[in-house]
Amino acid sequence: MDVRLNIGLLGVRHPNMPGDDKGAYVKAMDEMEKLSNELDFNLIKIPELLGSEDGAVKARKKMESNLVDFTMIFNSSLGYGRILLPLAKINSNIGLWSIPEPTKSGVLQLNSFCGLNMYGAILSNYLSKYDIPFKWFYGYSNSKMFLERFKITVKVMKAIKTLKLSRIGLVGGIADGFENFNFDETLLEKRFGTYIQRRHTVEDIVNRAKNMEKNKINEDMKLFLSQGKWNKERVSEEELEKSSRVYLAFKEFAEENNYNALAISCWSKFQEVYDIAVCSAMARLQEDGIVAPCEGDVPGAVNMLILSALSGQRPTINDLVSIDEDDETINMWHCGVAPMSLANKAGVNWDEHFNIGAYENGKWNGKGVVADLTFKPGRVTIFRMDSTFDNFLIMNGDVLENKESYYGSSGWIKNIKIIGEKVSMPDLINSIILNKVDHHYPMVYGDFKNELIEFAHWNKLNVLKPRPYKPYL
Questions:
Q1: Nearest C-alpha neighbor of 197 from the set 263, 139, 265
Q2: N or C: which end of the chain has fewer CB within 10 A?
Q3: Cα 173–175–176 angle (5° rounding)?
Q4: For residues 392 and 384, is the Cβ–Cβ distance under 8 A?
């Protein structure tokens, strides 16, 4: 989903400060125009500095009519406290911004930082019952600290807006036995504004797949085979064609319903109705930018949408299946649903499923097609928000390049940290189990720990902390 932010900029001033507060605001506006192009957002400005409460009321109306997602309040000098009162209740998140004094002695010119300090205290103390979150910024927008803080916020606001505009289709319900993925759809909508429809059936998709036009299948088969190597010894042409049909059916279904995420109950109904595992179809959907977690995991879809918005990349979802205490690594794996862009230089093999199928004459015959790949080396972020949408775990690590992995989509990960704190393998186990973390782990390449912590702040969520290992309960 291509989401573009609307960021508002307005400035406040004190009429009696001797410094060039108007010039400072012009400079801030010019620099923010440049940033809007660099960071790809729309900038909505109030050109004149605000000096009264009435002016702030008008400015708020303009920002809200332009559907601003984040409002920067620039303390060009020490603004009156009452200017903030109508702005504090604006229908967007808020940033409070001040700049350094132009001189270090003599007559005080702007008193900008005092304005930031006072406005922060008004929001936190005088308006405490409104519980208004805000973020402070200091320095002109070309300074290192400002840029570091602002770039994080732009990514986070994009993730928040993405969830608000997202539409998730649950196909087939939650897979049998995965009760930990149960969720309250009204809570999801209330918390993030995300639309969810949970009444789609596996039969809906299979009927589409069976009735797909042959010319579309023929065209897609060429693309399918260009995206990976076909293991002809273990995957029949019939299985390949069925997988193509399911992929096209999912894609058509998502486009018709304007879904950017499909939580798919990938087993066991698909095997009962169409005698196929749908892993490769899900891998290809994810490469197309349609988030597709396994087993009807809607909270997992929400997690993946967040990671996708923060990174601009394709996430995947895994189980933590193995812990190697010898080299302190963990293996993240799933049957074969990772997007092809996550594969190492060996690429993707279109292969049979490892446990959906049957033994025939002593030989395993897997049903359907999976994306068999080993994750490419690099830094990754692993993130799981629970099914109550209250708590989440943030981990980082490095995918190893030369350690052989499991069949399916998987990789070994070293240097595990939880919110930046290195943990041992016993610490990791203890932290996961005692923090009640669900067993699906969305993952994306890059380090987005800071962004996820800030996302939690804006949404009043709880970031789970490491739980050091103890030998007792």
A1: 263
A2: C
A3: 115
A4: yes
Q: Which amino acid is at 178?
A: F
The DSSP 8-state label assigned to residue 353 in this structure reads: -
- Domains within the chain, CATH numbers bracketed: 5-164 (3.40.50.10940), 166-463 (3.20.14)
99 within 8 A of 131, measured Cβ to Cβ: no
pLDDT per residue rounded down to tens, the chain (473 residues): 889 999 999 999 999 999 999 999 999 999 999 999 999 999 999 999 999 999 999 999 999 999 999 999 999 999 999 999 999 999 999 999 999 999 999 999 999 999 999 999 999 999 999 999 999 999 999 999 999 999 999 999 999 999 999 999 999 999 999 999 999 999 999 999 999 999 999 999 999 999 999 999 999 999 999 999 999 999 999 999 999 999 999 999 999 999 999 999 999 999 999 999 999 999 999 999 999 999 999 999 999 999 999 999 999 999 999 999 999 999 999 999 999 999 999 999 999 999 999 999 889 999 999 999 999 999 999 999 999 999 999 999 999 999 999 999 999 999 999 999 999 999 999 999 999 999 999 999 999 999 999 999 999 999 999 999 999 99
pTM flag (> 0.85): yes
Q: How far apart are CA 379 and CA 279, in angstroms?
A: 25
